[in-house]
Design goal:
Allantoicase, 3 helices, mainly beta, single chain, hydrolase, 9-stranded antiparallel β-sheet, Jelly Rolls, about 40% strand, purine metabolism, EC 3.5.3.4, Galactose-bd-like_sf
Length: about 350
């Protein structure tokens, strides 16, 4: 079994490996955006939150010089009119796709070997709604990563120990140079006003759901199933290795909050020859005692399946069994929060804002 339980460790205890197990709240595929930057003379600021590993092709020169899969600024000069002075610094402003508690930040200088910044720092703020860069300039910013040294072509992991919900981060490079990626790992803290009294996806990562365990993730992580939107190819879902025994694969989710599931959706889009033959669904209050609410049901390849459920069982966890193996592009569990679920979401939000 692969344990993917959300960590309960404080930020000071997290390692780089622990950070990668937490969702990247700034990721473009999760709704993140680079709103503004002081300069992007050589490479675009938007590259900072691309989902893929930074790429590099040597001797690929465009009108701005060597092309980099990252953010690169012009050289700042420490002298003006022949008088030495502060060269200043460059910055990029990022809106988190998923607001939440930040547990760690990764500043990756991949492929920047002679043009990386010697230092960087990161700040965060909380401002709901859809603020503009000028409005964010006046926000109450908190330093979450102090000025820290960087080296070239390296992923630098920095733990964060601030128990607050944030919506935006500001990356500062001191004084200039190139950074390939900014990863902001943490725990999603949704706004309860968009969950309470509504039918919502109780399995959505953006609503606070998390994968806590699975039998196999040989080809890809099951947490991909909880991402927003549709999978663009089979790598953007969950896929297991081929089983050679009589068992089956499974995944356990902690739902966004305790609730009742009305519709279950199993999407095998793009999985044409490796979809499961069947699926079943069970729920639990404590992830120990399970009750089946969807019996073993046949699936088709490359198909979006929707099943209306008659169960009125309140659940905090759900287990999906795929028979015998294969992949799911997306898993959606549409339902409503129970009174205890609404209370839990509201109390957590209020404690962190």
């Amino acid at each position: 079994m692969t344990d993917l339980s959300p960590t309960d460790l404080s930020a000071t205890q997290l390692s780089a490996t622990d950070l990668s197990a937490l969702p990247d709240l700034a990721l473009r595929t999760l709704g993140g955006s680079v709103l503004a930057a002081s300069d992007e003379s050589f490479a675009a600021k938007e590259n900072l939150i691309n989902p893929w590993t930074p790429r590099f092709s040597p001797e690929t020169f465009g009108v701005k010089g060597q092309e980099y899969d990252g953010w690169e600024t012009a050289r700042r000069r420490p002298c003006r009119d022949g008088v030495p002075g502060d060269p200043g610094h460059d910055w990029a402003l990022v809106r988190l796709g998923l607001p939440g508690v930040i547990r760690g930040v990764v500043v990756d200088t991949a492929w920047f070997k002679g043009n990386y910044p010697p230092h960087a720092s990161v700040e965060a703020c909380a401002l709901d709604g859809h603020p503009s860069p000028s409005e964010l300039a006046d926000a109450d910013w908190t330093e979450i990563v102090p000025r820290s040294p960087l080296t070239g072509d390296t992923a630098h992991a920095f733990p964060v120990d601030v128990e607050r919900r944030f919506t935006h981060v500001r990356l500062r490079m001191l004084p200039d140079g190139g950074i390939a990626r900014l990863r902001v790992h943490g725990e999603v803290v949704p706004d309860p006003s968009f969950l309470t009294g509504l039918t919502v996806d109780l399995a959505a990562l953006e609503n606070g759901a998390r994968v806590t365990g699975c039998s196999d993730m040989f080809y890809s992580s099951p947490e991909n199933m909880l991402f927003p939107g549709l999978a663009r190819n089979q790598s953007e879902g969950w896929e297991t290795a081929r089983r050679r025994d009589d068992g089956n694969d499974w995944v356990v989710l902690r739902m966004a909050a305790p609730g009742r599931i009305a519709v279950a959706e199993f999407d095998t889009t793009h999985l044409k020859f490796n979809a499961p033959a069947a699926v079943s669904l069970s729920v639990s209050a404590d992830a120990e005692t399970w009750r089946e609410i969807l019996p073993r049901t046949r699936l088709q390849p490359d198909t979006r399946h929707r099943f209306r459920l008659d169960s009125d069982v309140e659940a905090g966890y759900v287990r999906a069994d795929v028979h015998p193996d294969g992949g799911l592009a997306r898993l959606r569990l549409w339902g409503t929060l129970t009174p205890s679920g609404e209370r839990a979401v509201r109390e957590r939000y209020e404690a962190l804002t």
